[in-house]
Amino acid sequence: MAITVSNISKLYGSQRALDAVSFNINPGEVVGILGPNGAGKSTLMKIITCFIPPTGGNVTVDGFSIHDQSIEVRRRVGYLPENTPLYTEMYVREYLEFVAGMHKLQNIKKRTSEMIEMTGLAREQHKKIGQLSKGFRQRVGIAQAMIHNPDVLILDEPTSGLDPNQLLDIRQLIRTLGKEKTVMLSTHIMQEVEAICSRAIIINQGKIVADDTTASLSSKLTGSNIILVEFSGPVSGEKIKNLKGARKVKLRENNLWEIHADMETDLREDLFKLAVDNKVSILSMNRENASLEQVFQSLTLI
Ligand code: ADP
Ligand code: MG
User: Measured from the CB, is residue 48 less than 6 Å from ligand 1?
Assistant: First the structure.
């Protein structure tokens, strides 16, 4: 089921959380929305799921608009909010039956059993939600998102706060679900997108800064120019950034700088001159192979 996001903007007061965001997601795609905290990921997801209206623009899900066909949209979309507002006093099965009832499903008990089975909650179904570990609560959140069998799943930071084992379990679950459904998940962790998604949309400060397959994003940046240089004493970041070809500069630790430079640029000579001018020496200088993590950083560093 396709999702079309056209020119979506969102203002909170005078703050622009989303700025003319547009993209399409094809049926069956598993897309990662990647961005640092405050980028606008949750806002985007709340708009697509009809929880808040945009200030401008439109979203359609399977051709239905969030503006005047929100019931049709909600029927097709399952949503795991960022901080799943689960009822901690309810039992797992009781809660899922309650959600199934809200969707006016037939065969509530049967459907609840299916969801419990699919999300691996069999042993937890008679526990109170408040007694569950974070990983199992997240499963309950995913189960409630899917109980009405939507074709689209929107998962807001589905693995945040999980321990490494729980993380692998939930990723596996999402991969399995992704075989049958259109999935959009948000995260601020690049590896997450590499592990689960076929495509990444990177947003920063409310704008899309990259939209590509994960494979292509990696290959584009393998040739990227990242230099690590360690000086024997302080050098101003501003001066490094002013070198011709330097785009972004970051202090990694004491006097160890990470420099993102244009592909064609060889900064070595200029760096030596800079060191001499500043009466420091260069202790080490290395070129780093760019990882997707760094692609992300170089696109989202301000
Ligand atoms: P992300 O999910 O990528 O961390 P959000 O969509 O939650 O980002 O937030 C984007 C920006 O909008 C942030 O600067 C945040 O502070 C702001 N924001 C989010 N929700 C509200 C709100 N209800 N009222 C005012 N500002 C908000
Ligand atoms: Mg968020």
Answer: no
